[in-house]
Design a protein that fits this description.
Length: about 300
């Protein structure tokens, strides 16, 4: 057994204090229990394994990727375990902890300047183009997470875990959209088991492109790329819900103080949306969402430094 075998099989717990009366039960899956503290460990293991299997990644090669941080730390973990050099394109828009975490695990960072520390469509495009240039060097393997369907496989196991842990008693699954891989991967599995399960995708209200709005700057790290992700599949999603950055931050603080659950901003957005769905479904139903990563990744940001 090695460190990669520690990925997955995370706990699921019930929210008890932030949920209003007469709501459905809300369960949250603690994805910070993965080795780097986020759900992205699942996709990183899957995409590296797929690249090795199809011959794109060979001993002595360098892995290239653009990321806001959690994917970078996860790739750094897998690359360290598998013996690959890793070059990451990221930005000052993302928390210092995430950048330091990637570097601590051996990633070599190239930072792209943001507009006032916010995630924008232009920033994502600039990061992708920088990674593209790096990938033109010899003996490199570019992960390109936005178009890499191999990442879906990493989240199929997450869907199966949710199904087993809830004993199939689930009315809705709610989750933020970044690359759309995690939402789609889980939704595909749950819908296969029970087509009636409602899948609710969440995006930043300031950049609500999936609902037909215009892209805009926001501060929900890791989601809301300002465009429809290539992996987005509307056929497995029943509803898209927009959550404002301030509401996501406020909920992240609340679940830390009231529930003892220390998570990031996208997890706060997940809970805001899950409560809305739970209020609609009523007390006889059950809603599941994710604590996508640990609050330890956000200590230097205004989420927890007030």
């Amino acid at each position: 057994m090695d460190i990669l075998d520690a990925i997955g099989t995370t706990s699921i717990v019930r929210l008890r204090k932030v949920v209003p009366p007469r709501c459905a039960e809300i369960l949250v899956k603690l994805e910070w229990e993965n080795p780097t503290g986020s759900m992205k460990d699942r996709m990183a293991r899957a995409v590296i394994a797929r690249a090795e299997q199809d011959g794109r990644l060979k001993p002595g090669y360098t892995v290239i990727e653009y990321t806001g941080g959690s994917t970078g730390a996860s790739l750094a973990l897998v690359c360290a375990a598998r013996g690959y050099r890793l070059r990451i394109v990221s930005s000052d828009a993302f928390s210092r902890e995430k950048l330091d975490h990637m570097a601590a695990l051996g990633a070599e960072l190239t930072l792209v300047e943001s507009e006032g520390g916010r995630t924008t469509k232009k920033l994502i495009q600039d990061m992708i183009e920088t990674a593209r240039r790096l990938s033109q060097e010899p003996r490199t393997c570019w992960i390109d997470q936005l178009t890499n369907a191999g990442s879906l496989v990493g989240y199929h196991a997450l869907g199966e875990e949710i199904w087993r842990q809830t004993e199939g008693k689930i009315g809705a699954f709610v989750h933020c959209v970044g690359t759309a891989a995690s939402c789609r991967g889980v939704a595909t599995v749950l819908k296969r088991h029970q087509p009636a399960i409602k899948i609710v995708a969440v995006e930043p209200a300031e950049s609500s492109v999936l609902l037909g709005g215009q892209p805009g700057p926001h501060q929900i790290e890791g989601v809301g790329i300002g465009d429809t992700p290539p992996l987005w599949d509307p056929t497995v999603v029943d509803e898209v819900m927009a959550v404002a950055t301030d509401d996501a931050k406020d909920m992240a603080r609340r679940i830390a103080r009231e529930e003892g659950l220390f998570a990031g901003t996208s997890s706060g957005a997940n809970v805001v949306a899950a409560i809305r769905v739970a209020q609609r479904l009523g007390p006889d139903a059950r809603v599941v969402t994710l604590m996508a990563d640990s609050g330890l990744k956000y200590l230097s940001t205004d989420v927890y430094r007030r």
